Amino acid sequence: MFFKQALDKQLDSWIADVREHANLPVKLRLWNGKEYPLGHFEKPDVTLTVREATALPLLLVPSLDNLGEAYVQEKIDLEGRLADIINVAFGFSAAAARSAGGALARVAQHFTHTKQEDQASIQYHYDVSNDFYRLWLDPNMVYSCAYFEHGNEDLATAQLKKIDHILTKIRLQPGHTLLDIGCGWGALVLRAAQKFGARCVGITLSQNQFDLATERVRAAGLTDRIEIRLQDYRDTAGQFDRITSVGMFEHVGKANLPAYFGRIRDLLTDDGVAMNHGITSTDPQSGEVPMDGSGFMDRYVFPQGELPHIGMVLQTLQQGGLEGFDVELLRRHYAQTLFHWANNFEANGETIRKMVGEKKYRIWRIYLAGTAHAFTTDQMSIYQVVCHKARRPADTLPWSRRYIYDATIGNTV
Fold first, then answer.
1. Among positive and negative, which fits the CA dihedral 210, 214, 217, 222?
2. What is the DSSP code string of 252-321?
3. Phi/psi of residue 279, nearest 5 degrees
4. Which stretches make up the DUF7884 domain (predicted)?
5. Is 182 found in the same domain as 75?
6. How many CA atoms lie within 13 A of 60 on its CB side?
7. Which domain, by its residues, includes 170?
8. Is 228 found in the same domain as 95?
9. Spatial distance between the Cα atoms of 278 and 340, rounded to a whole number of angstroms
């Protein structure tokens, strides 16, 4: 009885505090049927149902990690438009951070990133099933930030534009050899061979991606120009005129970045060009941002994922023997990409739920929509960095970025 009274008092105090200082368009519904408004709104946008008392410790400190945990474990339910639900979640988290004096930042984790651990992490995330990804990606199954040149492109067009943007940036020419580190389901190497006339090697640690990419290469009649390998970048040998890494280095680990970029340098020809396209932290110290949901992401979405700040990217790139000469922020583009993915996911929600089960459905639903909000609000960022071997003569650099936008196949800079 004493414990219940204490909990009721704490809950009443929390409700009053949220209502007064956060003023969220939320109706709170408890397991016993009691309802409370959490803001001064005539008609709330979201109903938050607490299904059991064990959810209260998570709810009373409503960080993104705690809210995500309660939702995935089915301790709470959320009703309303997905965009409103995500806005409310960030509102809760911001209020919790203010109450804690900004002390809700998670202590940075450090992972060893052995080859076996990295393969297990990759397969956990990417080997859900190819049919699962087909339901919300574009037809080419490109699982990385698209490029919306004008802002009104559909997802499929924007993904092809992203690939062409990358291949034009690295000045890919007919006959060049290209290594794609983390090749996904093969869209970039297929485009590089078909449109740009390159000879390509794509590597991945995902068995599902390897199988489908290999089948796509065979179906396209390009087995003489494209090789797909189930291989770690640390085990790759050879020399390549061009190297791309798109949405992969987030799995490398911050401590391993100099060695990662050093490996790219070793695989690159002396006059070669490489590009790293990856998600970054917005914390200048390359730590977690209080409202980036890092704990939830590490536990349920990207095991052992680590995000460096763009400053660390450029520093470790130089330590690896490379010089970055073109840096482009694509944060707005990734927010738009994720909105497309989240909308596709919602449109196919019932099919996805039956395919992967309630828990995984909830994980991916909240991950896609929450990450879209994080990129929109500068909680996370993403950059493309074009580079070549350090100490090259200055006259090997292009005079301007004009070649990226005016180039046609066969042009030289």
1. positive
2. T-GGGHHHHHHHHHHHEEEEEEEEEEEEEESSTTS---TTS-HHHIIIIISTT-----HHHHHHHHHHTT
3. -75, 145
4. 19-91
5. no
6. 13
7. 115-396
8. no
9. 19
- Do the beta carbons of residue 90 and residue 316 sit within 8 Å? no
Residue 229 placed within a domain: yes
Q: Within 13 A of 221's CA, how many CA atoms are on the CB side?
A: 1
Task: Determine the number of helices (DSSP H) and then strands (DSSP E) in the chain.
Answer: 16, 11
Report the alpha-carbon distance of residue 330 to residue 326 in Å, rounded.
13
Running DSSP on this structure, what letter comes out for residue 105? P
Please compute the mean of the pLDDT values over residues 184-198 and round it to a whole number. 97
The residue written with tokens 């709470």 in the block is 76
Which of 158-162, 219-223, 320-324, 359-363 has the least mean pLDDT?
A: 359-363
- Please count the other Cβ atoms lying within 10 Å of the Cβ belonging to residue 10: 13
DSSP code, position 109: P
Considering only residues 320 and 65, tell me which one the structure prediction assigns the higher pLDDT. Answer: 320
Q: What is the pTM of this model?
A: 0.89
**Residue whose entry in the numeric block shows the structure tokens 């009691």:** 34
CATH number of the domain to which 173 belongs: 3.40.50.150
Instruction: For residues 405-409, give the mean pLDDT.
Output: 66
* Domains contained in the chain, number: 2
CA-to-CA separations, 306 to 274, 280, 298, in angstroms, rounded = 21, 9, 9
C-alpha–C-alpha distance, residues 89 and 38, integer Å: 13
222 & 331 share domain? yes
β-bridge pairing 380-389 and 322-329: antiparallel
